[in-house]
């Protein structure tokens, strides 16, 4: 019997790896503010903040932290603080403010962004990207993105586009839920479509292909936020995450967030049977009971389901989330607070169709022209084949 063949892996270097290898030349002589968190690491696990702080040809003067803080440990509003490793001030971009002030930017001539995204519109790191890019343009600062792979790959695009009147910190721009872009590509799209006129530079990832999921990169997985603990959870998030503004626990406060969901009023066996009967591609549902230790329904026993991806190449996360929403609406019309589903869906026509009882298939067909238009919109800003 022949030995199993290893997965085809490209040696991937992220933006910080490329910048470091080149001696930080694009930042030479610059006074830098770094927007980063614990995911800002090179291949050897050294923090971008420490690398820039030690670089002899630039001055790192300030740090800016997104949701979950500079070290990624907070699941609440993030305060300003001092970074113990560098002694630099850390200004929060999540809490009292979500963009840097003129006073915080005073004396800087460059902002650098190095944060790992997970490829979903309502994950707030890309909102921080957009808002800080706006401020860089407003104050005449150069903006440098140290790019990183999209863990969900760069080919698939899925879900309704956010309505213009539904934009928020969880929907910064008119994107589909799964956008299939890197943060560097998004910065280019934001800069062009919002006509910001920022002096933008992207330090490209080397070795990443659009078809690659995270496990093809051989890069170390670092939880981008406290409840995003694996590639599986990241892939489930565009669909399961939609539920969490309603009265459903999505597993926060358990060991497997976004792999389970439920509520005290929910019958897991009934729901799992109904969902499996829908035969959504690449996924099965197993009834479970769980008691979250924190977040929604903390300390309360919940009936629910475990979501199992059985074939990743066939799995369609947003469609699966809509199948779940459609089924909850049908089985629990009184209990499930479907009106709150729009907060992350961010598309009024899709929400109204869901409330009217339309199927996930009908909903998905309804925005295909918008998806095709988005593919055309994003094409000039893509950086990888």
Distance between the termini: 36 Å
The CATH topology of the largest domain = Rossmann fold
- In angstroms, what is the radius of gyration? 21 Å
For the secondary structure, the number of strands is: 10
Query: Helix/strand-derived class?
Result: alpha/beta
Instruction: Look at the structure and give the CATH class of the largest domain.
Output: Alpha Beta
Backbone shape: globular
- The CATH architecture term of the largest domain is 3-Layer(aba) Sandwich
Could you list the spans in which at least 5 consecutive residues all have pLDDT below 50?
A: 1-6
Can you walk through the features of this model?
The chain is of the alpha/beta class and 385 residues long. It has two domains: 206 residues, Rossmann fold; 116 residues, Aspartate Aminotransferase, domain 1 (Alpha-Beta Complex). Helix content is 28%, strand content 14%. The protein contains twelve helices and ten strands. The strands form two sheets. The chain has a seven-stranded mixed beta sheet with strand order 3-4-2-1-5-6-7, with helices on both faces. It has a three-stranded antiparallel beta sheet with strand order 8-10-9. β3 and β4 form a beta hairpin. The N terminus is likely disordered.
Topology readout:
Layout: H1 15-21, E1 31-36, H2 48-54, E2 59-65, E3 81-82, E4 89-92, H3 102-105, E5 110-114, H4 125-139, E6 142-146, H5 183-193, E7 199-203, H6 231-240, E8 260-263, H7 268-277, E9 283-290, E10 302-309, H8 317-331, H9 342-345, H10 348-355, H11 360-366, H12 368-378
Parallel strand pairs: 1-2, 1-5, 2-4, 5-6, 6-7
Antiparallel strand pairs: 3-4, 8-10, 9-10
Helix pairs in contact: 4-5, 6-8, 8-11
């Amino acid at each position: 019997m022949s030995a199993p063949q290893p997965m085809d892996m490209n040696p991937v270097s992220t933006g910080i790896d490329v910048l470091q290898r080149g001696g930080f030349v694009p930042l030479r002589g610059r006074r830098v503010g770094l927007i980063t968190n614990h995911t800002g690491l090179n291949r050897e696990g050294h923090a971008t903040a420490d690398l820039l702080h030690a670089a002899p040809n630039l001055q790192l003067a300030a740090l800016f932290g997104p949701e979950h803080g500079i070290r990624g440990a907070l699941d609440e509003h993030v305060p300003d603080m001092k970074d113990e490793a560098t002694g630099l001030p850390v200004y929060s971009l999540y809490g009292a403010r979500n963009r840097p002030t003129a006073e915080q930017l005073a004396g800087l001539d460059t902002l650098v962004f190095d944060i790992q995204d997970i490829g979903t519109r309502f994950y707030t790191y890309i909102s921080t990207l957009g808002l800080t890019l706006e401020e860089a343009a407003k104050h005449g600062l150069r903006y440098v993105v140290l790019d990183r792979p999209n863990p969900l790959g760069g080919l698939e695009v899925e879900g309704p586009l956010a309505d213009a009147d539904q934009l928020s910190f969880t929907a910064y721009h008119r994107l589909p839920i799964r956008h299939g872009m890197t943060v560097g590509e998004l910065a280019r799209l934001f800069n062009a479509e919002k006509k910001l006129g920022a002096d933008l530079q992207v330090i490209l990832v080397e070795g990443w292909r659009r078809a690659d999921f995270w496990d093809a990169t051989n890069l170390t997985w670092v939880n981008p936020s406290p409840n995003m603990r694996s590639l599986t959870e990241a892939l489930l998030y565009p669909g399961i995450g939609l539920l969490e503004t309603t009265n459903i626990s999505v597993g926060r406060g358990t060991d497997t967030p976004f792999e389970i969901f439920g509520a005290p009023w929910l019958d897991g066996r009934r729901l799992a049977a109904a969902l499996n009967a829908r035969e959504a591609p690449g996924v099965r549902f197993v009834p479970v009971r769980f008691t979250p230790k924190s977040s929604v329904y903390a300390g309360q026993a919940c009936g629910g389901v475990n979501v199992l991806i059985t074939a990743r190449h066939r799995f369609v996360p947003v469609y699966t989330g809509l199948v779940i929403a459609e089924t909850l609406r049908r089985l629990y019309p009184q209990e499930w607070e479907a009106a709150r589903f729009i907060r992350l869906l961010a598309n009024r026509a899709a929400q109204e169709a869901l409330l009217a009882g339309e199927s996930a298939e009908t909903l998905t067909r309804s925005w295909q022209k918008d998806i095709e238009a988005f593919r055309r919109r994003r094409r000039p800003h893509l950086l990888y084949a």
